[in-house]
Amino acid sequence: MTISQLHQMPHLILPILLLLINLPLYPSSYHEYGDALSKSILFFEAQRSGYLPTDQRISWRDHSGLGDGWMVSTDLTGGYYDAGDNIKFGFPMAFTTTMLAWSVIEFGQFMPPLELRNALVALRWATDYLLKTVSQTNRIFVQVGDPIKDHNCWERPEDMDTERTVYTVEAPNPASDVAGETAAALAASSLAFKSTDPGYAETLLRTATRVFEFADTYRGAYSDNTNIRDGVCPFYCDFDGYQDELLWGAAWLRRASQNDYYLSYIENNGKTLGADDNINEFGWDNKHAGLNVLVSKEVLEGNLYSLQSYKASSDAFMCTLIPETSSSHIEYTPGGLMYKPGGSNLQHATTISFLLLTYANYLEKSSQSINCGNIMVGPTKLRQIAKRQVDYILGDNPKGMSYMVGYSNYYPQRIHHRGSSIPSIKVLPQFVGCKDGSVYFNSSNPNPNLLVGAVVGGPQEDDTYEDDRVDFRKSEPTTYINAPLVGVLAYMISNPNPN
């Protein structure tokens, strides 16, 4: 409708003006998804522990944690610091690994060749470490570093002088959650490496099989072990039970190996292990929604009706995300961000966006849609919801702020991250002790080292965000926020406007 046509129908002017007034005014929704993808992968280099390679691109970091594992006579160097501290928590690191691998499996085809290579490098930094944690039969090293003592300090990883306590679980003590997630991570990664490094992929799959057997034989949560509980809780305690990790690990082993044993496992153990419980959650502690989407691929492609309950749960979960459906119950901020109470809210936006895009692909390939009661929902709708979340993170929000550090011209400057907030060891070579870093923690100055690609915890339920280093729930980045975003951004490069 032209302006002249509108003037001929004055009765329409007021309603249209009211509609325009009520639309949120955000910056342009055009985004450089390729740039964001590059940065989201680059972030992992800043989180590296161990001996850094010569092609390390985050130049303000240096070697750290080189003695990890010495007290148990095992090489446990490498891996990632999961967030803004200097601890290597095995549970979220394994989940991060699974999601990086799944990103490559589902969306690697959309990545530019260089970024696909970088994603595999980031993945291998994780899998090489995870292989070390399960190098001994019926034993798993679940964590390196005393979190209480570490969190009482504010120091660079290159300077850390807190105890690098190794937390270990040995049979018959249980660690079904960490071992199950580690099995999932190694199995998924075997698929990611299958075409480029088949020998390494075989090692990963063989190890995943053995680790899953340990997880399933000695059932229970790792945080129930009294000898390690004080070190893993309340940080990455198992709050939602270990059963989902057993099904998750079996589902990934089924996909990676095509072994019918794992098909029977997820068919026969779904009810007893609570596959129908908490189906609307997905993250480092609760795998249910991801499990259901993963298993649904086999249902949609192979008509395996024995797994139909998993697909029904996936459909039900997707319907809860759509405001127009009668079963909608997820909360959105006024600006359109998925919101769940608690810290690091953007982890929900990235993991759920990943599931939306993945399930949309599965539905499209099988020419199916979802019955949400009052409406039918197809792949396009799921993709549009995911795009809205990604664009919000990148700046289409009431603050006009990118919640990815280094993307656009307006992003968080005072993130809760030790290495980023203290001058680099290459600029300030003298030792910065445990309490010496407090002056930087309490400073109102921007962080001196740019943690490129880091996605922070995110805004409050009213879309407000204070750029405050102290408020770790909002200002701290984590690897498990970024890992699923890698796949989401890869998809958006080739499909910026889902329709």
UniProtKB/TrEMBL annotation:
Catalytic activity line of the entry: Endohydrolysis of (1->4)-beta-D-glucosidic linkages in cellulose, lichenin and cereal beta-D-glucans
Q: Where is the signal peptide?
A: 1-28
- What region holds the Glycoside hydrolase family domain? 33-489
Q: Which PROSITE patterns match?
A: GH9_2, GH9_3
Membrane-spanning segments: none
Q: Name one GO biological process term.
A: cellulose catabolic process
GO molecular function terms listed in the Swiss-Prot or TrEMBL record: cellulase activity
Keyword line? Carbohydrate metabolism, Cellulose degradation, Glycosidase, Hydrolase, Polysaccharide degradation, Signal
Question: What's a Pfam family this protein contains?
Answer: Glyco_hydro_9
Q: Which Gene3D superfamilies match?
A: 1.50.10.10
Active site residues according to the UniProt entry: 416, 467, 476
- Which superkingdom is the protein from? Eukaryota
Recorded E.C. number(s)? 3.2.1.4
Supply the PANTHER family for this chain: ENDO-1,4-BETA-GLUCANASE
Tell me which family the UniProt entry assigns to this protein: Belongs to the glycosyl hydrolase 9 (cellulase E) family.
The protein's name is: Endoglucanase
